[in-house]
Amino acid sequence: MPMPRRQHLIFDADDTLWENNRYFETAFSDFVTFLNHEHLGHQDIRDVLDAFQKDNRHHLGYGSRSFATSLRHTFQHVKNVESNDPILDEAQQFGLRILDLEMEPIPGVEETLTLLQPHHDLILLTKGDSEEQRAKIDRSGIEHFFDDTIVVTEKTATTYHETVAAKQLNPLDTWMIGNSPRSDINPALNAGINAVFIPHELTWHLEIEEISTLAEHRPGTLLQLVYFRELLAHFGESSTSN
């Protein structure tokens, strides 16, 4: 599909630009070991955690602090301890420790952004706790690649409509690039912009859903890649020449 020389590329952050969910998975596994329940297995405990995270989504949002609070509730629920038991503080620390971990860029991200930046408008759009996400952006060392960085509490079709309108972008030249069908791909397609799906093997399971069939009615608006660096085949200098 021929593309104009300049496109508007909107990038997800967690598990698209840098590693994220693998830290949560490690923390959860350590939490399960710490909990050491005599009957409930790993998946049973995850089911309890999921129930709290789904409920907390409307109150605490996303991120390490919300996750830590959900771990606290999970421990209290399955162990049936009092809400002021000091052991709950220990359980919560498995989530809070994620706040201090180093950023780990996805392979190929910096090299690819370096080559894309001269030819396109690059925007970072991430969801979650504003303080935590801003800290990640600061620590990532890649903020300078982007014309703007935006943190929202949720990504919906409305989010993308508002971003396109606020930035005065042409929807036909705008692409959302991310790993989450639920937050990156489907709402972008439903908002009438293009999408690039780059799956991550450890995408949070609550972010996984079927890709919208809307793409079938708009050929060329959905790309699926394996590696981040493959963006250069579609948006690199040679692919954007007129």
Provide a compact summary of the structure:
This protein is of the alpha/beta class. The chain is built from 9 helices and 6 strands, in the order E-H-H-H-H-H-E-H-E-H-E-H-E-E-H.
Task: Please report the total strand number as a whole number.
Answer: 6
Q: Span from first to last CA?
A: 12 Å
Shape estimate:
elongated
What is the tally of helical segments? 9
Key terms:
242 residues; alpha/beta; six-stranded parallel sheet; 9 helices; elongated
Describe this structure in words.
With 242 residues, the protein is α/β, with parallel strands linked by helices. It is 42% helix and 12% strand. A six-stranded parallel beta sheet has the order 3-2-1-4-5-6, with helices on both faces. Helix 1 runs parallel beside helix 3, helix 2 (42-56) crosses helix 3 (64-79) and helix 7 (157-167) crosses helix 8 (181-190). The longest helix is centred in the N-terminal third of the chain and has 16 residues, at 64-79. It starts with 7 loop residues before the first strand and ends in a 7-residue tail after the last helix. The mean pLDDT is 90.
